[in-house]
User: Which sequence fits this backbone?
């Protein structure tokens, strides 16, 4: 008798787990689908503001998030309003579904995401103690493969950052804001030391740039550094990753900096992948 | 009301009198030697160099100078920049204790400049802004000082025009530094100066030294604050150009220091 009761209980749990609303990839309910899911322009830093169109006669909405396009959805919100702010620790994807009691939308809403452009190209720049014709400056592009290196000494190359050695060591190198220093004909960038890969927890919506631990002039790199966050002149955040600092074998005190980068396509958001 | 003013006036006169008496006593205790002019002439005859010399006793304000307004080339203008940095810091514009960059305090960059880093000194100029530096020099009458930048030595680096400093200005800069020596960041900037062994031997171990040294192929400039255990702190400026050997300048400094302390 006890065994029968246990079996019924387990069957009930399995049925509940499989019922509509618990699989956002295929909700299968009877309610109307949520439409018009968008990431609002007021999103900033880690705060992703989602909005969508109302569905009539529902109890509320579930908000789901995942960090990769094929990962498992996590329910991050359960709200009655048609907006939700997710404080994320990584870039990712969102869908929303309506619910009423145990019934849900038939399908997910449209999917939106905060994924940065990932430019996996390995870019290489050299500091001022390397040969003068080696590229020292860099411009972040907003589509994959559109980053550029150039000569900071070339006033036609309007760089975001450039490599510079303030102390003449073999592997000593600073990243300078494009508008600072001897070749400061470029654009203002701010740099920040990441505590983690996926997000920066200090940000600003000010056009004058972030303050505090964001550095507006220069940023010393250590050979152990893997990443640097960069706040660009136009309000977009980028993340340098796969960072490598090494002595330039061709010069006495030159230093080589190589890296790839991610750049957020939503101005003001500081969310990136785990790279 | 009138009586209050009169009372205040009397009090002010009394305080001034007392302060003046103290100054007089202190001056008497720590006055500069009377034969300094002779010492200056002796030093200026050393080698074929051109000399600029200055001494100030900070507590009394008594000072003596030689070739006060002549300009001497200075490769790394760390002393004037330090003085201006203190002014900027005191005005809250760029506090010396600010993290000017990742893990780098503003005072730290000035200390690296004091240690002889061309790159760091140039970075200090960038942070301050050349225009603001020149405005400060002009508005305070520091006409003997010219700051054009710091010549770097990386491949194909731009040529920077020569910087200059005079005894008169250097004395003023030292006074600014000394006037703020109670700030730990100011002491940090000037501490552990890159003195030659000869100069360390000259100064001995009893004094706390804050100093800025600039050496080029044919010049050597020395700016020192000597915090002595006795109630007398000295500022010394020794400028020499067209020198054959920096050791001649060290000898000149020893001659001056011994005249001041013997």
Assistant:
């Amino acid at each position: 008798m006890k065994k029968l009761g246990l079996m019924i209980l387990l069957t009930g749990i399995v049925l509940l787990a499989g019922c509509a609303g618990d699989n956002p990839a295929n909700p299968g309910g009877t309610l109307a689908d949520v439409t018009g899911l968008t990431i609002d322009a007021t999103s900033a830093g880690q705060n992703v503001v989602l909005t969508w169109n109302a569905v009539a006669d529902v109890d509320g909405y579930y908000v789901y998030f995942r960090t990769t396009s094929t990962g498992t959805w996590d329910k991050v919100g359960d709200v009655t309003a048609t907006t939700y702010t997710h404080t994320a620790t990584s870039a990712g994807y969102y869908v929303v579904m309506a619910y009423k009691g145990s019934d849900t939308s038939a399908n997910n809403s449209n999917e939106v995401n905060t994924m940065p452009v990932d430019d996996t190209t390995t870019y290489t720049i050299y500091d001022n103690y390397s040969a003068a014709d080696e590229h020292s400056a860099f411009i972040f592009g907003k589509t994959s493969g559109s980053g550029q290196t150039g000569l900071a000494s070339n006033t036609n190359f309007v760089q975001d950052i450039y490599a510079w050695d303030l102390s003449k060591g073999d592997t000593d190198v600073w990243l300078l804001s494009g508008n600072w220093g001897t070749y400061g004909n470029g654009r203002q960038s701010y740099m920040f030391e990441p505590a983690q890969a996926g997000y920066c927890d200090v940000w600003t919506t000010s056009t004058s740039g972030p303050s505090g631990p964001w550095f507006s002039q220069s940023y010393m790199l250590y050979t152990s550094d893997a990443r640097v966050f960069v706040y660009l002149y136009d309000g977009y955040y980028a993340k340098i990753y796969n960072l490598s600092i090494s002595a330039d074998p061709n010069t006495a005190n030159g230093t080589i900096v190589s890296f790839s980068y991610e750049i957020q396509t939503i101005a003001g958001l500081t969310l990136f992948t785990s790279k | 009301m009138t009586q209050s003013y009169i009372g205040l006036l009397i009090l002010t006169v009394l305080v001034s009198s007392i302060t003046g008496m103290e100054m007089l006593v202190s001056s008497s205790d720590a006055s500069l030697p009377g034969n300094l002019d002779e010492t200056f002439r002796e030093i200026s005859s050393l080698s074929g160099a051109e000399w600029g010399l200055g001494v100030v006793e900070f507590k009394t304000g008594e000072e003596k100078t030689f070739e006060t307004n002549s300009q001497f080339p200075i490769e790394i203008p760390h002393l004037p920049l330090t003085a201006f940095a203190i002014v900027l810091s005191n005005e809250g514009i760029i506090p010396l204790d600010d993290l000017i960059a990742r893990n780098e305090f503003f005072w730290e960059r000035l200390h690296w400049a004091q240690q002889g880093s061309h790159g760091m000194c140039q970075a200090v100029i960038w942070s301050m802004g050349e225009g603001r530096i020149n405005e400060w020099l002009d508005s305070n009458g520091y006409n003997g000082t010219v700051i054009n930048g710091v010549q770097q030595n990386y491949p194909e680096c731009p040529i920077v025009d020569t910087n200059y400093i005079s005894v008169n200005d250097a004395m003023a800069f030292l006074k600014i530094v000394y006037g703020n020596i109670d700030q730990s960041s100011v002491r940090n900037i000037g501490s552990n100066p890159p003195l030659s062994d000869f100069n360390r031997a000259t100064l001995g171990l009893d004094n706390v030294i804050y100093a800025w040294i600039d050496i080029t192929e044919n010049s050597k400039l020395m700016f020192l604050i000597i915090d002595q255990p006795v109630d007398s702190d000295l500022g010394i400026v020794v400028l020499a150009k067209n020198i054959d050997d920096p050791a001649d300048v060290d000898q000149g400094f020893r001659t001056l220091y011994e005249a001041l302390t013997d």
